[in-house]
Amino acid sequence: MEQAVLDQGAGKFGKGAYSLKLLGGFEQSVFEYAGEDGSRFVLKFLDAAKYQKADIIRELTWMAHLAGHGLRIAESVTSREGLLIEEVAHEGQLFYVVAFTIAPGQPLTDLESDASVIERWGRGLGRMHALGKHDSAALLHQMGFAHWNSHPIYTDEFPDAAGEKVHARWKEYLKELSSLPQNPQGYGIVHNDLHHRNFYIHDGDIVFFDFGDVGYHWYAYDIAISIYHAVQTVPGPRKAEFASRFCDALLTGYLQEHTLSNDWIKRIPFFIDFRNVYSFVYFSKYVNWHELDGRTRNYLAGMKADIEAGTPVVHLPIS
């Protein structure tokens, strides 16, 4: 990202001398701001060619709604002009800039040892889903959150880099998804990306952040996302045993906050495998393969082979 863009964005929210440290994000657009006066917060730059301002407003409103009902969320930071969203332009390109407090705590690096942490993770996810049904969330529903298939990954041309066999699998999954009921019991507002890198552990509690993908989807898919990404941290021989324990702990916490019928729970393995295909298609569409290192290319080649062969991500004893 151009330094001129970073400087403009930082100037909108801070003052005096400062430094920016890249934190990451899929587009390498998330930075930590450290001011000479001791101020510290997270800056996120969003390309206006890809993001709508209305979507960002919905994201921030949803986060405030969750925080207002007891969930620990990385809070929004207002700019020097008192705005939650600022705009910066450079050489004909427009960016939206938002800022958040730095979430206290540390990332979860050990997903295997402490089932109580996984239960709290599940409770947080269940609480989010339950709050989407809360009477006070009616206005949020009226704000027009996007539905599951409105993302460009569904509406644009399928990326050639993914290959014809993956495309065939992709169409099978989309057909199955399109046939699923969208009733309030199984479908609603979800985080849509709640893996272990999108929250911190602080004093035994969980602080959630990165709600940029919030929208309508199936609750079972939101659960599957957490399981899918957790499984990726464990070597192959231990995956099945770990996945079973992880899923039990996550659902134990989840069901304390939100009811989900066994019919939907039984669909979690389907959603896990769909997440795998989605992830591969996403990489194929948005990543320049020539810029990837050999390890990543080998990993993606393995993903592709498993998808083409119809190999499940992991076997879960859900029935």
Give the secondary structure arrangement, pairings included:
Layout: H1 3-13, E1 18-24, E2 30-35, E3 40-47, H2 53-68, E4 76-77, E5 86-90, E6 93-100, E7 106-107, H3 115-131, H4 138-142, H5 152-155, H6 164-178, E8 187-190, E9 199-202, E10 205-208, E11 215-218, H7 219-231, H8 239-254, H9 262-265, H10 268-286, H11 294-309
Antiparallel strand pairs: 1-2, 2-3, 3-6, 4-6, 5-6, 7-9, 8-11, 9-10
Helix pairs in contact: 3-8, 6-10, 7-8, 7-10, 10-11
Organism: Paenibacillus ihbetae
Pfam families: APH (PF01636)
Family: Belongs to the pseudomonas-type ThrB family.
Explained architecture:
Helix 7 packs across helix 10 (268-286). The chain starts with a helix and ends in a 10-residue tail after the last helix. A hairpin with a 2-residue loop joins strand 9 and strand 10. It has 2 domains: 3-100, Phosphorylase Kinase, domain 1, CATH 3.30.200; 106-309, Aminoglycoside phosphotransferase (APH), C-terminal lobe (Aminoglycoside 3'-phosphotransferase, Chain: A, domain 2). It is globular. It has helices spanning 3-13, 53-68, 115-131, 138-142, 152-155, 164-178, 219-231, 239-254, 262-265, 268-286, 294-309, and strands at 18-24, 30-35, 40-47, 76-77, 86-90, 93-100, 106-107, 187-190, 199-202, 205-208, 215-218. With 319 residues, the protein is α+β, with helices and mostly antiparallel strands. The model has no long low-confidence stretch (mean pLDDT 93). The strands form 3 sheets. Strands 1, 2, 3, 4, 5 and 6 form a 6-stranded antiparallel sheet that branches. It comes from Paenibacillus ihbetae. This is Aminoglycoside phosphotransferase.
